[in-house]
Amino acid sequence: MAAEESRYLLGDPAPDSNPRVQNKKLYLATFAAVLGPLSFGFVLGYSSPVIPELRKISDAKLRMDSSQASWFGSVVTLGAATGGILGGYLVDKAGRKLSLMLCSVPYVFGFVVIISAQNVWMLYLGRMLTGLASGITSLVVPVYISETSHPKVRGMLGSCVQLMVVTGILGAYIAGITLQWRWLAVLCCFPSCIMLLFMSFMPETPRFLLNQNKHSEAIASLRFLRGPHVDHERECRQIEASVQEQGLNLSEFKNPSIYRPLITGVALMFFQQVTGINAVMFYAESIFEDANFKDSRMASVVVGSIQVCFTAVAALIIDKTGRKVLLYASGIIMALSTALFGLYFKMVLPIQNNSSNPDVWFTLNSASPGTESNISWLAVMSLGLFVAGFALGWGPVPWLVISEIFPLKARGILSGACVLTNWIMAFLVTKEFNDFIAFLTSYGTFWFFSAFCCLNIIFTAFCVPETKGQTLEQIEAYFRRS
């Protein structure tokens, strides 16, 4: 895609739909939907306070060694990858609303299995089920929000998905300070139960209804979302003009309107994971301890708070700055901070350990006496900078963009491919991280991530379209004309 294509897709941004649009019920529908990502965040954050407790528990059947703890943390990603495939099917067959309501079942059932666990395998099963629900949620909620929102607020509301994820993670960190692991699982059940209740009163998206030839229901949905004082028929006609035949044939993947957004979406998910976000979070606890933050749980709360603050900033400014500006800023900040991480490890760790032992605890403890404490500020600064940079752009924006760029008839299956890519990459980066360190050394691994952050910037410049201010139909028409 040429660089000039980074301009607004069809000339001037779409004007506000109507000055009489009422957003209150749209915000209510968005709030109901993002309770799913809040549950998703609790799932991701649950393992951090729980693993130390399970490694010391008196019950031998539940006690975990380091390998089992690693699987307890990462098996969620395998469940989520499966959920991405299932969600891609459900969202087109059952609809956006029903898919979101159904995913509350594995959330609750998974945590019930954890609460009643008698052995490690039951804990794995519970994590797998909550991961499955998380995968469905990460696909369905961005689609639901993008299809119910109008262009003026779609960026802000779409960014609330990631905001609620990091809020859930932070909530699990804070609650984990005082709650025992079974009671923390009980708390984690509540958001999905509330989501099920609220979503039962929310409408299906008008685009899905029109794709099912349910015109009167689509009008009723728009009346709920926009208020009674706008021209609902006009918006319906605009949507209907882009609704094509149902179904997606394999031969249509040769069509640029299908394969170009698919390549863009898959690449966004790939680059999001190879920024090194999981690697940096893996090192967070040890970095804070080297800087004399002895309470590692409070360190996790600090990191989570940074994520929430900067994701909120992104949500507030994204409809003014556009998507690409945030991706540029985020990529630059992460490239700089991971390069500084590499410099820190190059200065702190003995040369022989960098190449022979991937265990961060061993290598940091074997550093020259006083070295790490003298420059621990560099690691803490790099960590804060990286987390802030990721939260500002490459955290929320890829999820928003993949909910905007796919044609209606293929939105489910193409979104599923992107979610599957994201979770598979998350699993690989998490599980193979120590192998990276053994092969590339600690500093080499972080410079490798820095190089990918630089590639992110180039990719954004040439391959990511600016979708600010455009209707979903205009975005679809842009790819169709390519």
UniProtKB/TrEMBL annotation:
<feature type="transmembrane region" description="Helical">
    <location>
        <begin position="157"/>
        <end position="175"/>
    </location>
</feature>
<feature type="transmembrane region" description="Helical">
    <location>
        <begin position="375"/>
        <end position="401"/>
    </location>
</feature>
<dbReference type="InterPro" id="IPR005829">
    <property type="entry name" value="Sugar_transporter_CS"/>
</dbReference>
<dbReference type="GO" id="GO:1904659">
    <property type="term" value="P:D-glucose transmembrane transport"/>
</dbReference>
<feature type="transmembrane region" description="Helical">
    <location>
        <begin position="413"/>
        <end position="430"/>
    </location>
</feature>
<dbReference type="GO" id="GO:0033300">
    <property type="term" value="F:dehydroascorbic acid transmembrane transporter activity"/>
</dbReference>
<feature type="transmembrane region" description="Helical">
    <location>
        <begin position="262"/>
        <end position="284"/>
    </location>
</feature>
<feature type="transmembrane region" description="Helical">
    <location>
        <begin position="436"/>
        <end position="464"/>
    </location>
</feature>
<comment type="function">
    <text>Insulin-regulated facilitative hexose transporter that mediates the transport of glucose and fructose. Facilitates hepatic influx of dietary trehalose, which in turn inhibits glucose and fructose influx triggering a starvation signal and hepatic autophagy through activation of AMPK and ULK1. Also able to mediate the transport of dehydroascorbate.</text>
</comment>
<keyword id="KW-0472">Membrane</keyword>
<dbReference type="Pfam" id="PF00083">
    <property type="entry name" value="Sugar_tr"/>
</dbReference>
<dbReference type="InterPro" id="IPR005828">
    <property type="entry name" value="MFS_sugar_transport-like"/>
</dbReference>
<feature type="transmembrane region" description="Helical">
    <location>
        <begin position="296"/>
        <end position="318"/>
    </location>
</feature>
<feature type="transmembrane region" description="Helical">
    <location>
        <begin position="325"/>
        <end position="345"/>
    </location>
</feature>
<feature type="domain" description="Major facilitator superfamily (MFS) profile">
    <location>
        <begin position="25"/>
        <end position="468"/>
    </location>
</feature>
<protein>
    <recommendedName>
        <fullName>Solute carrier family 2, facilitated glucose transporter member 8</fullName>
    </recommendedName>
</protein>
<feature type="transmembrane region" description="Helical">
    <location>
        <begin position="26"/>
        <end position="51"/>
    </location>
</feature>
<comment type="similarity">
    <text>Belongs to the major facilitator superfamily. Sugar transporter (TC 2.A.1.1) family. Glucose transporter subfamily.</text>
</comment>
<keyword id="KW-0812">Transmembrane</keyword>
<keyword id="KW-1003">Cell membrane</keyword>
<feature type="transmembrane region" description="Helical">
    <location>
        <begin position="124"/>
        <end position="145"/>
    </location>
</feature>
<keyword id="KW-0813">Transport</keyword>
<feature type="transmembrane region" description="Helical">
    <location>
        <begin position="181"/>
        <end position="202"/>
    </location>
</feature>
<keyword id="KW-1133">Transmembrane helix</keyword>
<feature type="transmembrane region" description="Helical">
    <location>
        <begin position="98"/>
        <end position="118"/>
    </location>
</feature>
<dbReference type="InterPro" id="IPR003663">
    <property type="entry name" value="Sugar/inositol_transpt"/>
</dbReference>
<dbReference type="InterPro" id="IPR036259">
    <property type="entry name" value="MFS_trans_sf"/>
</dbReference>
<dbReference type="InterPro" id="IPR050549">
    <property type="entry name" value="MFS_Trehalose_Transporter"/>
</dbReference>
<dbReference type="InterPro" id="IPR020846">
    <property type="entry name" value="MFS_dom"/>
</dbReference>
<feature type="transmembrane region" description="Helical">
    <location>
        <begin position="71"/>
        <end position="91"/>
    </location>
</feature>
<dbReference type="GO" id="GO:0005886">
    <property type="term" value="C:plasma membrane"/>
</dbReference>
<keyword id="KW-0325">Glycoprotein</keyword>
